[in-house]
Amino acid sequence: MHHFFVLSGLIGAVRRACISSAGCLTVLLLATAALHPATVHGQTATAEPAGQAGKSADKDAKDAKATEKQAKKKSPVIAQITLAGSIPDGVGQGGLLADVSPHLHRLIERLDKAATDTRVKGVVLSIESPAIGRGRAEELRAAIGRIRKAGKPVAAHLIGADPVHYIVASACDTVAMPPAATLEITGVRTEVTFFKAMLDKLDINAEILQVGEFKGAGEPLTRTSMSPQLRAQYEQFVGDLYEQLVERIAADRKLPADEVRTLIDTGVFTPEMALKAKLIDAVAYEDEVISGLAGRLKLDEPKISRDYAEQKMDNDFSGIGGLVKLVELLSGQKQTAAAGKDKQIAIIYLTGEIKEGKGKDELLGGGSAGSDSVIKAIRDAAKDDKVAAIVLRIDSPGGSALASDLIWREAERTTKPVVASLSDVAASGGYYVAVAADKIVAAPGTLTGSIGVVGGKIAVGKALEKYGVHTDVVAKGRNAGWLSMQTPFTEQEREVFLATMKDVYRLFTSKVAAGRKLDMETIGKLAEGRVFTGRMAKDLGLVDRLGTLDDAIDEAKKLAGIGADEAIERVLLPEPRGLFDDLFGMAGDAAPVARLAGAGNASGSSFAREALLRAALLARMTGVPGLEGLAAEADALVQLSSGRPLMMLPMRVRVR
Fold first, then answer.
1. Among 142, 152, 168, which Cα is nearest to 116's?
2. Residues 610, 191: Cα–Cα separation, whole Å
């Protein structure tokens, strides 16, 4: 991320000049005009004649340089690639920004390049606590497998080592850890934090309703502990994730399953202990891993390609040329357009919470899937004659029922084959969208299902009264206050809201039944908010196949009548927004300043609700232990209190 901080230090210098499209264009034109004479001058200077001896010397130097360059090209290479930080699904920025905050597909591209690059003889994978889940871990494991299939050994240097990191490392030929590291294969654990008792102390009423006996998204605000139904379903999917962990380690490390269970119960290992238990192959620093791999490959002086295939960003922004470069960088760079004659598969990413309107990428914070953005991407792919099929890549806990339904409709109505590829999480609204596809492919550890509806509001009137904030009301109409955050629901308001939720639940279950070709009686046993792993969902008929994004693409090729060995090009959608959009709010619904200020219309927009809710929560932050945790979930709270039916998982659920 150091590149980003270089950029941020220069933003103030260009903000005034580039605050509008016209401003950006003016800067670019001025810069081009300023650079042109220098370019001509440079051409003139190099065209000046020199003595014959000088020409001969120059030629010899060029020949020597070319020979040296050619020798370097032919020398064997050990590629080093680091997995660290957030590695989200999604398109991400292109060009120079591609590897500032790399997305999963970009890392997979680099690993696949190492598999096909004839210079690369082996790969060192440095695993430094990347923020990934089980679905993305499977994608990385598959890419590692392709390198090994190409006959190139992969050595893992494992620095941060929780169970998911170890799952990735164990896919390699060898696993090494530095002496001071710790291996943590402690099993699987979920945590759900409950805030009701604290809200009671603050006189805040959480009015959250649910349709589905197991739909526990509102329980953190309405209960002090898990309901028996919520606990039962969590025990089921945690149990399956545990068994998957045991099976994976046993297969990769060639250990008996019972022995692996014993090792998991020990849980925390020093590198020496892990070596003795045959969980790793060596205790070594990265340079020793590299030299060991070189020795295994019998390479005397291999070239070490650090950060192999990573886009190198020139961070020299001095002068007018640097300003032009910075403007281009901040304006956002699209992915490279497909230029070949091969048929195309459109990969449409739906990542983060599902909301109405435009989504946002993860470069400057958490991402969200906007219905407008995803629908436009589906339409663009549907009308493009080069695109033979669509793959929806979903990594979302759900969100707005309306937005989910609008995306579902667009995916369902396209005449081109559609395949859903489920990443770490594709539950509730995320699964609702998936059932529009002709086929669904999930990772074994994907969390999916959660077929149910939740929603309501949070009444903060009493809490504000304690601090002298009084609200007078003038209203006409029995249910005029159903979205007011001042008071809880009246009985009539509760009935009206619950009726809308039941209708959305009817839509949800009927569309799952139609999409999965299951009868309503069967759906009744799978719905009610139950959550499953991908493996469980496969057994229950909720998904068609276990696999990765590549497996989903294979399914799309079959449906489109493309041969298994026939080459295709991938088109990644939606196009990412530029940094100007995120930094200055040039696109989207409102500027960041307006969002922070809670600006909105007089009818009580989401901005106003957010500002009011944040004010009520933060007012007592220093006086109530645990309130910091609730404030951190303010976005989820705003969604829950929106007065609209939602399809989403419980907030603040950690799976370790």
1. 152
2. 26
Q: Please indicate whether residue 371 is annotated as part of the active site.
A: no
| Both tokens assigned to 182 | 């710790």
pLDDT digits over 205-263, tens only?
Answer: 888 899 988 888 889 889 999 999 999 999 999 999 999 999 999 999 999 999 999 99
Kindly provide the residue ranges of all beta strands, DSSP E only, lying in 151-299, ordered along the sequence: 154-161, 174-177, 182-184, 190-192, 205-211, 268-269, 282-283
Q: What's at 383, amino acid-wise?
A: K
Query: Can 196 be counted among the known catalytic residues?
Result: no
Residues in the chain: 656
| Predicted TM-score of the model (pTM) | 0.81
Domains and CATH numbers, the chain: 81-186+267-283 (3.90.226.10), 343-651 (3.90.226.10)
Go through 426-465 and write b for each residue having 16 or more CB atoms within 10 A of its CB, e for each that does not: bbbbbbbbbbbbbbbbbbbbbbbbbbbbbbbbbbbbebbe
What gap in Å lies between CA 464 and CA 450, rounded to an integer?
35
Using DSSP's 3-state secondary structure scheme, residue 327 falls into helix
286-325 per-residue burial string, b: 16 or more CB within 10 A, e: under 16: beebbbbbbeeeebeebeebeebbbeebebebeeeeebbb
Beta strands in 188-310 (DSSP E): 190-192, 205-211, 268-269, 282-283, 303-305
C-alpha span between 445 and 548 (Å, rounded): 11
Identified catalytic residue from 421, 423, 428, 484: 428
Give phi and psi for 469, each to the nearest 5: -95, 110
Local confidence band at 473 (pLDDT 50, 70, 90 cut-offs): confident
As a whole number of Å, the end-to-end CA separation of the chain is 26
52 Cβ contact list (under 8 Å, min separation 6): none
Tokens read off for 199? 């809200």
- The token pair that represents 609 in the structure block: 């609700």
What contacts 503, CB < 8 A, 6 or more positions away?
none
Which class for 349: exposed (0-12), middle (13-18), buried (19 or more C-beta within 10 A)?
buried
Tell me the C-alpha distance between 32 and 15, whole Å: 19
Distances from the Cα of 126 to the Cα of 87, 165, 172, 238, 579, angstroms:
14, 11, 11, 28, 29
Active-site entry in 215, 416, 511, 538: 215
